[in-house]
Design brief:
This protein is mainly alpha-helical and 107 residues long. It contains 5 helices and 2 strands, in the order H-E-H-H-E-H-H. The N and C termini lie far apart (41 Å).
C-alpha cells in the first residue's frame, strides 16, 4: 500500500512540475527572412512583434509557426510577384498573423 501511495505522490509531483513548466513564460527571439522583413516594413508592421516573443512553450510554438509561414509566404511573393493571386493570399496571411499574434499574447 505504501508503494502505491508513494508512486501516486511521485506522479502528482511530476505532473505539477510539468504544469508549472508549461506556464513558465520566457522571452525568445525568432529569425525573419529578409523578404519577410521587407513585407512587414512595407505594411507598417512592428518587426519586434515577430522577432521577439514572451510566452510559455505552447505560445512559443504557435509564434514559431507564424514566423516560419510568414518567411515562406514572403519568399513565395518574391518568386511569383507577378501573380495577383499570390499577392492576395499573402495579404490575407499577414492580416491573419497580426490577429494570431495579438491573441497569442493574451494568454
Amino acid at each position: 500500500m505504501h508503494v502505491l501511495l508513494t508512486k501516486k505522490k511521485e506522479d502528482e509531483q511530476k505532473e505539477l512540475i510539468l504544469n508549472s513548466d508549461a506556464r513558465l513564460k520566457t522571452e525568445r527571439t525568432f529569425k525573419l527572412s529578409n523578404n519577410a522583413k521587407y513585407e512587414l516594413i512595407n505594411s507598417n508592421e512592428n518587426l519586434s512583434d515577430y522577432e521577439q516573443f514572451n510566452g510559455n512553450k505552447l505560445q512559443h510554438q504557435l509564434h514559431k509557426e507564424i514566423v516560419d509561414t510568414l518567411n515562406e509566404s514572403s519568399d513565395l511573393l518574391v518568386v511569383f510577384s507577378d501573380k495577383k493571386l499570390i499577392i492576395g493570399i499573402n495579404k490575407f496571411i499577414h492580416c491573419s498573423f497580426n490577429l494570431a499574434i495579438a491573441c497569442n499574447k493574451i494568454k
